[in-house]
Amino acid sequence: MNTLLEVKNLKVRYGNIEALHGISFDVKEGEIVTLIGANGAGKSTTLMSICRLPPPEAPRVTEGDILYKGQSLLNMPPHKVVSDLDMALVPEGRRIFGNLTVEENLKLATYARTDGHEAIHRDYERVYQLFPRLAERKKQRSESLSGGEQQMLALGRAIMTKCGFLMLDEPSMGLAPLLMYDMFRTLRELNQSGLTILLIEQNANLALRFAHRGYVLDTGEIVAHGTSEELLADPEVKKAYLGG
Amino acid sequence: MQKHVATIAIFAGIILLVLCAQFHILDQYYISVLMFMGVNVILASSLNLVNGYMGEFSCGHGGFMCVGAYVSSICTVLMFSKNHILGAPLLPPQFAFIGFPLALVAGSAASSVAGLVVAIPSFKTRGDYLAIITLAANYIVISAINNMEIIGGPRGFMGMSATERAMQSMLDIPWVLIFVLLGTVFTVWLLRRFVSSTLGKGVPAICQDEIAAEIMSVDTNRMKLIAFMLSSGLAGLAGGLYAQVLGYVNPQSFDIMRSTEVMVMVYLGGMGSLSGAAIAAILYTVLMEALRFLDVWKWVVIPLLLILLMQFRPEGIMGNKELSDLFPKLRKYYSFK
User: Fold this and answer.
1) pLDDT band at B95 (very low <50, low <70, confident <90, very high)
2) Mind giving me the DSSP string for A47-90?
3) I need a labelling partner for A43 at 20 to 30 A (CA). Which of A145, A202, B279, B326 fits?
4) Domain range holding A150?
């Protein structure tokens, strides 16, 4: 399997505070990899650094490199990361465009696509097939959707940007357990049809049951990694993140 | 066929108005009010792109209008009239039909460039800071022109009516009215097409959440640039038409008062509603004329009306809905393609 994403010795600062003290991990093609850890461990910072997102207090990469298919992402603006590479991000808190309709949200995601009407049309079909609820609510303003439907839209929107590598930041946040399982079932289906997934999750139990491999992040450092089975069986991880 | 009803109705309306003007059914006063209405619709709907759809706060629209007005006036005067500084007309009057629209395009292009100059430093700022930048730009434009003796400075610039005379010497119909009406229809059509396109969806996306727009592959800097240039370019078109309607321009008529007026129209109509901006522009022009008998008291009544509106309907006349949202049946009768 080819390595898709490779993070090498990444150090990231917010102002004077170093948030990541040199983390390294990789994601191979076709895998589901999860980064787990407590609040403030640096999970979201890692994702933001990969996508080059400018939060109010911009995280600054001081050392290390992020490679996607061998190409460094460090000097790419976020919209290029999405449009030129086949990466997509479902951000924390979904961040859908409430003032646009469901259909317009999906349409916006095709903004920079150049692969023609047919391919875009196929992806619409695919999203509506995965989430029939979205098809029913096409013309509704997306702020009127329920939390679960908004999460579906956020995921659908990421698919519409034509992605082969999907990053998810806390997709389970604020979802009822049943919806959450639905969501993960859909993600697994997508993975089986060739999508590589990097999942960031606080709910370690759920994440490890879903992913192939995992990394445990603690205050800016990777403290454990291995296959999901290994991590689930690891007494340290069990004690700290899985509740005994 | 049904889809074209609105298009046919609009052009029938234009022909009707032109006929009314041609055979003096409407007197000159009503015609000029009509033309100001058109100019105001262009101004309000173009500012609405930035202040409404994009959620920025630009308050220097008058400055862009001024650039367009002066550049296109200078072009027409250069081409078709005798001026003691710019010399004899360069082109014979037969070319006025081509020359005038070209002058309008030149004016719009110049104000787009002015918009570009303002847009670049505005990338890093939003809200109050952008307001200050645009306000400053408005002042810079006005004082630059005030100090340019060659185009009249504070006394203003005139001679544009020669273009109209040139066009009328070929065919005696109300040309300026026709151009104003066509310009208005063009602006509304262009903006409607723009905001409903995939590219244009980037504008409300920036308004809602800039970071989310970035991860949806929208190049937000480029999008802001496009929206700003489109908006200021159309303001320049409005300026060029305004100059031709009056036959005279002076820098004072494009100062902060003008920018405020346009902003009032946008907020009156509802932010992010094209039909709202158009309706508000028409209503505002009518109100200004209808309350003329009140004299100075007009400036007590109109602000009072605004305060009442903001109290009881803060989202403006249309909110962020279009006419077609309120009356879905209308959709059958138009298409913007």
Assistant:
1) confident
2) HHHHHT---SS--EEEEEEEEETTEE-TT--HHHHHHHSSEEEE
3) A145
4) 95-163
Q: Are residues A117 and A158 in the same domain?
A: yes
Domain count of the fold of chain A: 2
Contact B219 A79 (CB under 8 A): yes
A168 and A221 inside one domain: yes
Q: Is the pLDDT of residue B337 over 60?
A: no
Residue A165: its H or E element: strand A165-169
Q: Clarify whether residues A103 and A76 are in a common domain.
A: no
Q: Which two tokens stand for residue B329?
A: 């049946």
Nearest CA in chain B to A158: B216
**Are A48 and A106 members of one domain?**
no
Distance from CA of A157 to the nearest CA of B (A): 8
Question: What interhelical angle do B175-196 and B5-22 show, nearest 10?
Answer: 160
* pLDDT above 80: residue B243: yes
Mean pLDDT throughout B288-298? Answer: 86
Give strand ranges (E) for chain B: 157-158, 248-249
| Residue B58 vs residues A154, A159, A182, B52, B132: alpha-carbon distances, Å | 31, 35, 45, 10, 8
Domain harbouring A62, CATH code: 3.40.50.300
Which of these three, A135, A163, A191, is where a domain ends? Answer: A163
Phi and psi of A157, rounded to 5°? Answer: -65, -40
Is 0.90 surpassed by the pTM of this model? no
- Confidence at residue B126, expressed as pLDDT on a 0 to 100 scale: 65
Q: Is B159 on the interface with A (CB under 8 A)?
A: no
Residues A199 and A150 in one domain: no
Burial level of B147, CB count in 10 A (0-12/13-18/19+)? exposed
Predicted pLDDT of residue B336: 60
Looking at beta carbons, which residues of chain B come within 8 Å of A109? 216-217
Q: Are residues A48 and A63 in the same domain?
A: yes
Would the CA dihedral through B137, B140, B143, B146 be positive or negative?
negative
Nearest-Cα residue of chain A relative to residue B203:
A108
pLDDT at B139: 95
Question: Do A157 and B216 make contact, defined as CB atoms within 8 angstroms?
Answer: yes
The last residue of one of the domains, among A110, A134, A163, is A163
Closest CA to B45 of B227, B317, B281: B281
Residues 6+ apart with CB under 8 A from B103: B72, B73, B75, B76, B79, B163, B240
State the pLDDT confidence band at B315, using cuts at 50, 70 and 90. confident
Q: Is the ipTM of this complex over 0.90?
A: no
pLDDT tens profile B15-71: 999 999 888 888 889 999 999 999 999 999 999 999 999 988 888 999 999 999 999
Dihedral sign, Cα of residue B258, residue B263, residue B266, residue B267: negative
Q: Are residues A155 and A193 in the same domain?
A: no
Q: Which residues fall within 8 angstroms of residue B143, CB to CB, at 6 or more apart?
A: none
Q: How far apart are CA A211 and CA B66, in angstroms?
A: 61
Judgement on whether residues A149 and A41 belong to the same structural domain of the protein: no
Residue % of chain A over a pLDDT of 90: 55
The answer to whether B223 faces chain A, any CB pair under 8 Å, is no
The CA-to-CA distance between both ends of chain B, in Å, stands at: 13
